[in-house]
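Regression test case RT-17, inverse folding.

Input:
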């Protein structure tokens, strides 16, 4: 993918997420023309402890709030570039999947890496030419 100006904003805001929150590590990710694929690893060290200081957890956002922060920051920056205020950029929700092991993580990393080459067949591509039936969309 060759990113346009908006894509570069999305990439920078995604990288910002990993820098902004100490409990977040970003693994494989790719910005697509109308969506993003990414793996977020959340370090839960300190969770569940009765002695955890509230200030330590103040920036420990759960996944939904992390995605919300990313969408908010990237939307604001893109709208500045577009010269508009409050215009939507992202869909309302997001898809999540808990990765349960190394083999699954490797498969998802390959999917993310290969995704740009598969754009012509991607179900998110409005001009997709998929003729292989629903199963060809599956990961």
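Golden output:
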């Amino acid at each position: 993918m060759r990113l346009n100006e908006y894509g570069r904003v999305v990439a920078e805001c995604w990288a910002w997420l990993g820098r902004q929150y100490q409990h977040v590590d970003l693994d494989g990710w790719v910005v697509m023309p109308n969506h993003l694929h990414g793996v977020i690893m959340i370090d839960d060290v300190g969770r569940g402890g009765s002695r955890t200081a509230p200030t330590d957890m103040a920036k420990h956002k759960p996944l939904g709030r992390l995605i919300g922060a990313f969408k908010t920051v990237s939307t604001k920056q893109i709208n500045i570039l577009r010269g508009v205020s409050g215009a939507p950029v992202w869909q309302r929700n997001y898809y999540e999947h808990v990765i349960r092991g190394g083999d699954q993580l490797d498969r998802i990393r390959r999917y993310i890496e290969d995704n740009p080459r598969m754009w012509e067949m991607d179900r998110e591509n409005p001009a997709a030419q998929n003729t292989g039936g629903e199963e060809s969309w599956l990961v």
